[in-house]
Amino acid sequence: MANQVVAVVMPQAGDSERIRHFSRAAGLEDDVEFVFVDADSPPDEVVAKCLGAKALMPSTRSMTMEQFEELPDLRHIQVTSAGTDWLDKTALAERGVTVSNNGGANAPAVAEHAIALMFSVYRRLDRQFESVRAMRWADGARGDLDDRHTLVGKRVGIVGLGQIGSRVSKRLAGWECEIVYYDSFAFPREYEQEAGAARVSFEELLKTSDVVSLHTPLESTTRYLISDRELGMMKPTATLINTCRGPVVNESALIRALKDGVIKGAGLDVTEVEPTPPDNPLLDLDNVVITPHLASMAIESTIDSVNFGVQNAARAARGEAPESVVAPV
């Protein structure tokens, strides 16, 4: 008979059935009970159904700090995404509650997407797709040949060499790129060598890279990590890629830089406000490729994220140490 509880809080249209499947497949029902709560219920009902749970698996922004405070048994919050910026991890830590992300389960998909954005900006694939669908074939899609490039020989600067950034680096080795990185964390030399990236200062990365690719979580220390000063350090021929979180980049500064030729282009899967407003100038700039924050959208990512989340939440519910705990910053 299960004596530990994990409450899964998400809209009825969410992944609750997938989580049920994994909890059964993992054989967790004997010692850990998974209780499913409709996130669209009134807040007090959500809290009432979560009472007694030692671990929660809430969908993004489905619960508030006030609700967490009403759960005296809560010890762990498990999300199935990479980002945890919507959670006040410092306040939760003060209550003895840890937070884990998906342990890099979506890293391969996001790494692939980042490289796709690099290639798309360099070859303006979005304009080529648009031209063919509009029955114009190549008319209007060719552009200036000097603005079309390969990635061969380009220096790619990776900001954040974690689960995603390291995979970008490993994959780009086959594209004949030079890879450098900056990270506030000091990785072992073996990790750097396996990733195939050389550590440089943040300033050197910005000044010397042909492509700057961002792979850092959104925290107080990384909000507006890229703004006017940083964009001004970059090469006028450089491209900025952002597949992490929109507010890591000061969007107003980016728009100015793109319009004024401070940098050459940008490939973005994220924006400061999502969905981005229809009057966002980024949508009208010829040197920008934007996708709608779907870099991780692959069935493999979903399966791996849910599988990791179920197992990790169960560990926490049993009183074991959870994995992939995000530091309260």
Helix and strand topology:
Elements: E1 4-10, H1 16-25, E2 32-38, H2 43-50, E3 55-58, H3 65-69, E4 76-78, H4 89-94, E5 98-100, H5 107-123, H6 125-133, E6 155-159, H7 163-172, E7 178-182, H8 189-195, E8 198-199, H9 202-208, E9 211-214, H10 228-233, E10 239-242, H11 251-260, E11 265-268, E12 288-290, H12 299-318
Parallel strand pairs: 1-2, 1-3, 3-4, 4-5, 6-7, 6-9, 7-8, 9-10, 10-11, 11-12
Helix pairs in contact: 1-12, 5-7
Mean pLDDT: 93
Number of distinct helices: 12
Rg value: 22 Å
Strand order of the largest sheet: 8-7-6-9-10-11-12
CA(first)-CA(last) distance: 38 Å
Strand segment count: 12
Helix-strand pattern:
EHEHEHEHEHHEHEHEHEHEHEEH
Main beta sheet? 7 strands, parallel
* Beta-strand proportion: 15-25%
Helix content: 25-40%
C-alpha geometry: elongated
Q: In terms of structural class, how would the helical and strand content be classed?
A: alpha/beta
Low-confidence stretches: none
List the keywords:
329 residues; alpha/beta; seven-stranded parallel sheet; five-stranded parallel sheet; 12 helices
Description of the molecule:
This protein has 329 residues and is of the alpha/beta class. Helix content is 35%, strand content 16%. The strands form two sheets. The chain has a seven-stranded parallel beta sheet, sandwiched between helices. A five-stranded parallel beta sheet has the order 2-1-3-4-5, sandwiched between helices. The longest helix has 20 residues, at 299-318. The chain is elongated and about 65 Å long. It starts with a strand and ends in an 11-residue tail after the last helix.
